[in-house]
């Protein structure tokens, strides 16, 4: 059996974040609005997953030792192109779906003129155009660089801009402090979730790469988790204003659901610090076991991101 092919097939399990992201939307629907979510929420969730994955695949290049960065960038750029293309497609579907919903229509019936009008006149449409522009530029950079290590920094910056645009036009318009809270929350969550997916993609079946990348990522993940928790508490307080809002409003109940998932992720992080990282650092664990553990954590992260998408559109 070809070990490279086997590792590649195992890496496909990272796509489990897609169904768990859908599950997050469904759980949020039960907690906040039983009638369900509009189609645009599912497109938004897919776009977020793709964006976080692309950011993580660029981020991991900078976690690698300098002498290995070029080789890693060359190994990842084709995957990054696929992820970038998926992100672009999801954003285009999101634009059309949102335009249809804004005109009391559907994705299946929306006209091109309606989409153009939505993109020109409404804030949501203009934000979508900005995000699409960033993603398209990232794809162009990846295609031209063809694995050059410098492209990771450029694409990483474009991912950050694209991921921050949409959240800053939602609930966070309440105050400048709320805008800072949501911007910090989104960036920390993207680095945390995308970083682990990036490490898994980069390391795959190579135990030596896991030994180099996972300990460095673990340090970053700890800081990201702390920032996610602190900024999430601040954002929830600014939105709700009182503890009773956590169970009286749909928004508050989704916050509680997201908090439960965060606690699960913190538990997995504690396990990683105590068991997983020491095993990998000492070259005692296998790459297959590391990939399995990363897949479990990515699945839970997908659930969290699904809840986060729902939270952004829940009143």
Describe the structure.
This protein is an all-alpha fold and 315 residues long. The chain folds into 2 domains: 1-35 and 174-315; 38-165, no CATH class. The protein is 83% helix and 0% strand. The chain is built from 12 helices and no strands. The protein has helices at 3-11, 17-32, 39-63, 66-102, 112-121, 123-145, 150-165, 176-203, 207-240, 245-248, 250-281, 287-312. The model is unreliable at 1-5 (pLDDT under 50).
Any descriptors?
mainly alpha; 315 residues; 2 domains; 12 helices; 83% helix; disordered N terminus
Low-confidence stretches: 1-5
Write down the domain tally: 2
CA distance, first residue to last residue: 52 Å
The percentage helix is: over 70%
Q: What Rg is obtained from the alpha carbons, in whole angstroms?
A: 19 Å
Classification by helices and strands: mainly alpha
Strand content: under 5%
Report the principal-axis shape.
Answer: globular
What is the β-strand count? Answer: 0
Number of helices: 12
| Element-by-element helix/strand order | HHHHHHHHHHHH
Integer average pLDDT: 90
Largest sheet: none
